[in-house]
Amino acid sequence: MRRGLLLLTVITFVTWVGTRMTAVALPLVALEETGQAWTTGLVGGMAGLPLLTVGWWGRGLRDRLTGGRALAVVMGVNAAGLAVVPVASVMGQVGAVALCVSGLVTGVAGALLGPAERSLVSDLADEHVARGGRTGPARWLAWQDLAHRVSMIFAPPAGAWAVTMWGAGALLWCKTTVVALAATALLAVPAGRATHQEDQGGVQEEATPGRPVSALAVLRSRPQVAAGVLMAGVGGVCWFGFSLGLAVLGVEHDMPGALIAAGMSGYGAASVAASLLVPVVIDRLPRMTAMLSSWVVLGAVFGALPLVTPSLAGIAVVAAVGGAAMPWGIAALNALISEQTHGPDRRAAFTAETVLHSGGTSLGLLAGGALIGWAGSEAVLLTTGLLQIAAAVGGAGWAWKAHHQQAVDTGVRMAVCRAPGGKW
């Protein structure tokens, strides 16, 4: 089991590095081949459509992605989608159609792979612990998140260097090859063992064969997971306040690009540093408290950014506070899902997390420019910060209340069951 977990972590790191490097090359190839700036975002834009709708079309597929072989097939589809653009470039046929096809295919694969990988990590880690291992799902998921965050630091500059040295087309071929090799490596990852376990309410989970699990039903039955997913979703929608808000704020202060660079650098460096510590202590952290604290701190950071503008050092320091807080909330949510769900429910919960957070980020960026143009960057930063704080406080309060009520209801049922003549 440990070998499979290590392999999954390495694959996550390598593929995320390739994805961030490719993000530098794709717009350049599109612009060079088509000569039209509007085509540069087609791949990324089309890739977001499958993600937003995966809860509908992916319900019957996600329950089949329980092992390395199944994930290898999806990763192979991802490689095929990546190959569309460089192949079309060789043929001189790069256009809107090729870019849209590449985006849709890679989007379908990506929407399935993320939740499936986290679910498989949790399954294998559960089995690892059952066999006497000491490292459970929470730590392995935290290591996987660290692999994702480390790629934010050096992959974009490495991509820019590779484009300068090799050219954008060569970098796309390199990414396609790396993903194809990752698909081959996934064949060595074993399948997670299907288990029936008890949730915190003491009710045994049983999946109905042939009937996909509803993500909404899973969240309704687990208020703490639902609250964490809500916080992540609102945070994703509000992210444009940081990225677009700082970019526009820099222009307004005659410092184009400087504020967003300082903010992203501070945020990224601090998040990686915090991610190094998270796996060590994640098993000792109260889940809801960690999620609440992370999103409240990030919301406060959004509101504080205009106060330190236009100081680059101030922007970097304040953003670093948010970056240091964020890994704890994400790790706590992943740990909560791995602890309270199993089997199909687990895959449904991870899918809901991905759709609401990543899909919310896409929707926020889509509408964010217009909102900033209407209300102003400082007002948007303050508003998005307050929204994140409100979602965190409201979600945590509701989850604690619902969890307490569930505990009371369970105690009443147990008392009735134990009473003379009582029935369950």
From TrEMBL:
Principal location class: membrane
UniProt protein name: MFS transporter
Entries under PANTHER family matching the protein: INTEGRAL MEMBRANE EFFLUX PROTEIN-RELATED, MAJOR FACILITATOR SUPERFAMILY ASSOCIATED DOMAIN-CONTAINING PROTEIN
GO MF term set: transmembrane transporter activity
A matching Pfam family: MFS_1
Keywords, comma-separated and alphabetical: Cell membrane, Membrane, Transmembrane, Transmembrane helix
One cellular component (GO) term of this entry: plasma membrane
Cellular localization per UniProt: Cell membrane
Transmembrane segments: 35-58, 70-88, 229-251, 257-282, 289-308, 314-337, 349-374, 380-400
Family annotation (SUPFAM superfamilies): MFS general substrate transporter (SSF103473)
Taxonomy, superkingdom: Bacteria
Species annotation: Salinispora arenicola
Membrane topology category: Multi-pass membrane protein
